[in-house]
Write a structure and sequence with these properties.
The radius of gyration is 19 Å and the shape is globular. It has one domain: 3-Layer(aba) Sandwich (NADH Oxidase). α2 packs antiparallel against α6. The two termini are 37 Å apart. The chain is built from eight helices and six strands; from the N terminus they run ααβαααβββαβαβα. It is an alpha+beta fold. The strands form two sheets. A four-stranded antiparallel β-sheet has the order 1-2-6-5.
């Protein structure tokens, strides 16, 4: 394979500490939002964030992610109807009691108005296998891990640009294939809701686990 010289920015230790602190202070303010303004999001901002996501590392560089940007109100309405149908089934019959108890402090239920209120939905699909120019199946590797990393890149990039997000995962999500005309080899991974939070938006007063609980040195 052809090689190219690595482009890598080297910083002084002081600059590294400043950059790490600034990024930390900004990112720890990120919260999941459920109340959105209808104000449109600049296309250039969305595209830059998606380019960041598409630059993520992946198994064997297969890049098994596909992002579908949904801004059409009618399409968002169809997605909401289908998602709320699955969520109603989840809350009424499928979810075990302990799961419902864990969700109770967050105040979630089967109603998902944010799916039509927010200006943008990004449906993220995991490509289970690729297809080459001859129509032959191409194996992908580490698909969930790769798409998960790309999704993290995307959420970080959108937050950095000043947008709020919500990760939504109704189960099952195969209705997204039908509504968005995606091939069967693509599996819905996550529905990312994107926009500006309402001025009076409220979020649960949750606490993070102590740093020493989630990080250890050996």
């Amino acid at each position: 394979m052809e090689q190219m010289k690595l482009r890598f920015n080297r910083f002084s230790e002081n600059d590294m500490e400043d950059r790490a602190q600034t990024f930390r202070e900004h990112m720890v303010q990120r919260r999941t939002v459920r109340e959105f303004e209808p104000r449109p999001v600049p296309t250039s901002v969305l595209e830059d964030a998606l380019k960041v996501a598409a630059s993520a590392p992946s198994g064997a560089n297969r890049q098994p992610w596909r992002f579908v940007v949904v801004e059409n109100p009618e399409t968002k309405a169809r997605i909401r109807v289908a998602a709320e149908k699955e969520e109603q089934e989840f809350y009424s019959t499928r979810a075990p009691d302990e799961w419902l108890e864990a969700l109770e402090p967050l105040g979630t239920d089967a109603n998902k108005p944010f799916l039509t209120e927010a200006p943008v939905l990004i449906a993220i699909f995991l490509e289970r296998y690729g297809v080459d120019v001859s129509g032959n199946r191409v194996k992908n590797y580490y698909m969930p891990e790769s798409v998960g990393i790309a999704t993290g890149f995307l959420i970080s990039a959108l937050h950095n640009a000043g947008l709020a997000t919500l990760t939504h995962t109704p189960s099952p999500m195969r209705f997204l294939n039908k509504i968005l005309h995606r091939p069967a080899r693509e599996r819905p991974y996550l529905l990312l809701v994107v926009g500006y939070p309402k001025a009076d938006a409220m979020v649960p007063a949750i606490e993070r686990l102590p740093f020493d609980t989630v990080v250890s040195r050996v």
